Amino acid sequence: MLRLITGALIGLFSAGQPALAQVADLRSTTSFRVCADPANAPMSMRDGSGFENRLADQFGGWLDLPVTYSWFPSGMGFITKTLRAGSCDVVMGYAQGDELVQNTNHYYTSVFGIITRKDSPLAEIDHLDDPALAGHPIGVIAGSPPATIMARAGLAKDMRGGDLFVDRRVKDPVGQMIAGVRDGDLDAAVLWGPLAGPRIKDDPQLQFTPLLKEQGGPKMFYRITMGVRPGEQEWKRQLNSLIRRHQEDINALLRDAGVPLVDDYGKEMLP
Question: Please, are residues 190 and 138 in contact by the beta-carbon 8 Å criterion?
């Protein structure tokens, strides 16, 4: 589902400064080389329609560099086969704190939420321990943070799980869950905002309600950065500078795409 929840922590680039210098030499100075999944709608798509594609175009423009891609399905092996292999230089969306990459400063914070039909009796629900959810079929990605909270709230029997790691060129669990809510096969789906929000932003039947009131863990909001190789400090600083100077442009692009934005503490939605 997300690069947000990735398994392996690989302790590479720990052999000292000479290795770090070699890593820094991998960055291209003639193009903005992006590591991306070719079928991770609505984030990245080979046809360029994802919001991360549009964000990459903006950064390429600010750097005065053409944008090129190294495509590989997200999930296990994605970073090893792309960023660490030196075929590209940046992952456009990566959760803060993941040790597989070096994170830039975060450029947005988003949140999990509940997809319901606007005319549903569940439309007013805004937290996962609401007893009104019991007995309703609810889609959720297995292994995602809200699945843990739902199980703790006694909703395990109501959960209709989708796989976390799939090849999205052939499977689309998030899209299937949203379609299930729209068609009535599911009464709700609990999904990551950047994956769900853009898909329903113009849908007259569906709504996204952010989960801003959950108590205890795991948390429902995450700060999203760009990922670069460990040791590439100059590259990270350059991207951080662009993020700082163009934050309003970035926010506007994300809002236009339908990405739900929250403050850095996951407490309230940004306008």
Answer: yes
Strand, helix or coil at 170? coil
> Is it the case that residue 97 has pLDDT exceeding 50?
yes
**Structure confidence at residue 11 (pLDDT):** 27
In 3-state terms, what secondary structure has residue 244?
helix
Query: From residue 196, how far is each of 55, 170, 203, 207 by CA, in Å?
Result: 18, 18, 11, 10
- Label residue 167 by pLDDT band (50, 70, 90): low
Look up tokens 């450029």; give the residue: 107
* d(C-alpha 224, C-alpha 250), whole Å: 12
What does the alpha-carbon distance between residue 237 and residue 253 come to, in Å, rounded to a whole number? 22
Rounded to 10 degrees, the C-alpha dihedral 68/224/79/258 comes to -50
List helix spans (H) across the chain.
17-24, 51-63, 78-81, 145-152, 173-183, 193-200, 233-245, 247-257
What domains, with CATH codes, occur in the chain? 17-108+221-257 (3.40.190.10), 112-210 (3.40.190.10)
229: pLDDT strictly greater than 90? yes
- For residue 171, name the pLDDT band (cuts at 50, 70, 90): confident
